[in-house]
Structure to design on (236 residues):
């Protein structure tokens, strides 16, 4: 992280760790504004690091979370996921599902945390989901079918212009994903109060990740490090 006026290096950080936590936090914000606060059943597709951080964010946002239904094509991931997340989410029941449909069934919130693919599988279709459900995608269009994202009550992205520019490249968000007129709002508009939260129908939040958010995270981390005298401080 460099000083914006002089270009002098202020900190050297692990950006992979930082952006992982930022991704999970963004999913938590989606749930804060678009999930029913009384949501009790959560479906998690993809049990890697993003899936873990996202559930930790949901724990802060959804106090009535009782059941977490999990799925990963690598079955061994489920046991590792439960071992890590159970102490973090005490009192929550974890159910390992044999397929994506099982993880989506009866879920109030479904989050997809699979690898981002150039040729997406899109394994979750609208018929697998409840009528009233919040879907939070952290894997571009890899898992949610276009009928989920494009034919629900609202479609929200983290940044409208970034989504549309990425779509114009012709790789992601193709074949039925919302165009400009199909975007209800981006999260900046929602958090600032320009667009109201929606908690009925099928709501899709698709978060690509924004580099400026990583910079803000870096600033906060450096401030905390200064407060706690953490890390190795170098004098120039």
């Amino acid at each position: 992280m460099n000083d914006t006026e002089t270009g002098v290096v202020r900190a050297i950080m692990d950006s992979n760790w930082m952006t992982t936590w930022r991704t999970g936090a963004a999913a938590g914000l989606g749930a804060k504004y678009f999930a029913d606060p009384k949501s009790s059943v959560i479906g998690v597709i993809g049990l890697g690091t993003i899936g873990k951080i996202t559930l930790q964010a949901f724990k802060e946002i959804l106090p009535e979370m009782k059941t977490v239904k999990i799925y990963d094509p690598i079955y061994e991931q489920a046991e590792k996921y439960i071992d890590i997340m159970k102490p973090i989410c005490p009192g929550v029941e974890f159910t390992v599902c044999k397929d994506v449909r099982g993880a989506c069934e009866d879920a109030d919130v479904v989050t997809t945390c699979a690898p981002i693919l150039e040729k997406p599988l899109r394994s979750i279709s609208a018929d697998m989901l409840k009528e009233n459900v919040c879907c939070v995608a952290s894997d571009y269009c890899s898992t949610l079918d276009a009928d989920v994202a494009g034919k629900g009550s609202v479609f929200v992205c983290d940044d409208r212009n970034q989504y549309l520019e990425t779509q114009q490249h012709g790789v992601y968000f193709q074949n039925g994903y919302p165009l400009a007129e199909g975007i209800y709002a981006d999260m900046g508009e929602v958090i600032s109060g320009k667009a109201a939260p929606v908690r009925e129908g099928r709501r899709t939040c698709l978060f690509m990740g924004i580099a400026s958010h990583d910079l803000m995270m870096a600033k906060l981390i450096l401030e905390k490090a200064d407060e706690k005298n953490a890390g190795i401080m170098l004098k120039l």
